[in-house]
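Feature request, filed as a ticket because there's no other form

It would be nice if the structure record came with a short human-readable summary line next to the tokens. Right now we just get the raw output. Example of a typical job, pasted below so the devs can see what we mean:
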Amino acid sequence: MRQQRGKIASLTGRMAEENVTRVYQSHGATLLETRWRGKAGEIDLILRDGDELVFVEVKASTTHAAAAQRLLPAQMRRIMQAACEYCAVTGLGQDVAMRFDAALVDELGRVDLIPNAFDAT
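Raw output as currently delivered:
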């Protein structure tokens, strides 16, 4: 039973990430990485939007509000550290323009993008 819940959660997460990727691509962004993992943690999506790198945390739940509640400050800090690591290992350096977005996905698959969601941390 527990293993089955884990598989369902993984599939739900991947479907949410695919929905979010399509939204970004429809606005002209290019997907660079999915579920990139560094020493500091995992980044769900990394995209290029013009001259800017966009690091996206995807949260899925029954509602957008419920999904937003699952994005915690400690997780945001880990994602920012992982983004710096990504820039270092890919040779982009720390001077590249970047932003950190949250993408909230509800149970119907609707996506709510929150640009610069990590600004308050």
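Something like this underneath would help us a lot:
The chain has a mean pLDDT of 91.
The chain has one domain: 2-114.
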